[in-house]
Design brief:
Number of domains: 1
Structural class: alpha+beta
Number of helices: 3
Number of strands: 10
Largest sheet: 8 strands, antiparallel
Strand order of the largest sheet: 3-4-5-6-10-9-8-7
Length: 251
Amino acid sequence: MVAVPDSVDSLAAANPDSSLPGLVAGSDSLAIDSTTASADTARTEETALAKESGSQTANPEPDSLNLSLDFGYKGYAWGSRPDQFPPVHALSGPDYTPDSTVVSYRTVYGADTVQLHYFYADSGFWKVEISYAVHPFDSEANHKKFLELLEIISGIYGNPSSKMSAEEGPLGFTTHPLDIGFYRTFEHASWYAEPCQIELVHVSNVQDLETPYPIISNLSRLVLVYYHPDFMIKAHPEKPVDTGPSIYDFY
């Protein structure tokens, strides 16, 4: 069973060789009320993510931008359109979905190359998902990365308001040497940073059969989500799908 620590202190006790990236021991400078996410908090978060690699952030934010979560994500206001994206990061892209409801970029957070997926409702920008690379055969490495992110976000926004974890081995039976089983891991933590919600999710489905490459790809993911529920609006309900005549019309 994968154990998710109850607090930042217990996590540090369980991992004496690790430290909270971007935090100074004994400092109150990052003790932030869970009901407020200030501009200093947003800058601190990006610096903490960058310090995973022992370096400062490669993409400093202009001081003129509003970096608080109640305004938006990294200076990009909730409710904005895709063409209003500010040039604040060294991003590659964008890539659009056919309906332009999701716009994706690639960038670097510390030692990690991540994908940023910006989601748009009828009200505009409402959610960003930060996808991290995962190991196709090593759920323990993915779990370790989850704990690193858990440390960073907890150091900024406090202990999670909720968290859970579950793990199980391959189920059923096999009759052929090439039959595949999967080890499954699920970990989740939530923070409430008024008026926004933060979600950290790790899902690993690792095959028990050792092969040079994964037989079924993209079954695992590690994602950090920021969203503003007030902008999760669908102004026009979907039209009902015309399924044609009922089967009972033929009999």
